[in-house]
């Protein structure tokens, strides 16, 4: 796991490499991976609802403040997040904790570099316990989203169930050697998510059978975050 200082140190390199990826090149080695870097100068001060809303505004997120049981800073997402539009299998509005929305909006810029324009999710906010336990799922707090498919006109359809190649990567080379281009992008996304401070937890088909068909992306509550997804550290 990379630490914030490492990530912030790669901002300039990331910007240069991002343009390479935008040109359509698909990097396969960890060395060439564009690290998820903080977006740009912006917030500061205490981690409260006001600073989280300010972060959303800095990131150009269209949202509406709402109230939901269990969610500390509930927002309804009203547009794309960093260039990626989220669609649920059930046609319900996407309501999440602001902290996760900030993370997805920053991560979306990196997904967009892979040509991803849309993501399909199943579980978002849901008042439920972790299966087989008495513990609340992070979905109950609006802090987790289960993404099954990424898609875009350039990226095509990337299904976690069908295209994710399991058992790849190690500490020295997170990505490993995927055999397909779809598998490569999904591994690159996984490594970018894992290497960022945006998510407390990223569960994939490598985690267990329950995640054979989706990525579980989970953020820390905004009040507990010490990373600064917005402030440029360079
Ligand atoms: Zn989940």
What's this entry about, in short?
Helices cover 26% and strands 16% of the residues.
Features:
6 helices; 9 strands; 3-stranded antiparallel β-sheet; 16% strand; binds zinc ion; alpha+beta; single chain; 234 residues; 6-stranded mixed β-sheet
Sheet/helix structural class: alpha+beta
The total number of structural domains is: 1
Tell me which ligands are bound: zinc ion
Cα-atom Rg, whole angstroms? 17 Å
State the end-to-end distance: 20 Å
Count of distinct strands: 9
Low-confidence parts, pLDDT < 50 over ≥5 residues? 1-28
Largest sheet: 6 strands, mixed
* Helix fraction by DSSP (H/I, runs of at least 4): 25-40%
Mean pLDDT: 85
User: What order do the helices and strands follow?
Assistant: HHHEEEEHEEEHHEE
State the shape.
globular
Percent strand: 15-25%
How are the secondary structure elements laid out?
Elements: H1 4-8, H2 11-22, H3 49-58, E1 63-65, E2 74-77, E3 85-88, E4 95-97, H4 98-113, E5 118-121, E6 144-152, E7 156-159, H5 160-163, H6 181-194, E8 201-203, E9 215-218
Parallel strand pairs: 3-5
Antiparallel strand pairs: 1-2, 2-4, 5-6, 6-7, 6-9, 8-9
Helix pairs in contact: 3-4
């Amino acid at each position: 796991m990379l630490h914030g200082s490492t990530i912030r140190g790669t901002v300039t390199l990331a910007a240069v490499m991002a343009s390479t990826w935008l040109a359509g090149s698909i990097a396969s080695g960890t060395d060439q991976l564009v690290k998820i870097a903080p977006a740009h100068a912006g917030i500061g001060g205490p981690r409260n609802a006001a600073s989280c809303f300010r972060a959303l505004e800095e990131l150009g997120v269209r949202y509406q403040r709402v109230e939901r049981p269990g969610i500390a800073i509930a927002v309804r997402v009203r547009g794309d997040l960093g260039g990626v539009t989220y669609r649920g299998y059930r046609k319900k509005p996407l309501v999440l904790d602001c902290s996760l929305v900030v993370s997805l909006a920053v991560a979306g810029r990196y997904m967009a570099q892979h040509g991803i324009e849309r993501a399909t999710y199943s579980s978002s906010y849901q008042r439920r316990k972790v299966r087989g336990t008495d513990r609340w799922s992070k979905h109950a707090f609006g802090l987790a989203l289960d993404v099954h498919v990424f898609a875009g006109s350039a990226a095509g359809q990337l299904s976690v169930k069908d295209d994710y190649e399991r058992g790849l990567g190690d500490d020295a080379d997170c990505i490993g050697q995927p055999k397909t281009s779809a598998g490569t992008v999904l591994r690159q996304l996984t490594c970018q998510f894992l290497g960022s401070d945006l998510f407390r937890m990223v569960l994939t088909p490598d985690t267990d059978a329950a995640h054979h068909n989706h990525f579980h992306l989970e953020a820390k509550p905004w009040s507990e975050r010490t990373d600064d997804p917005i402030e440029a550290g360079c």
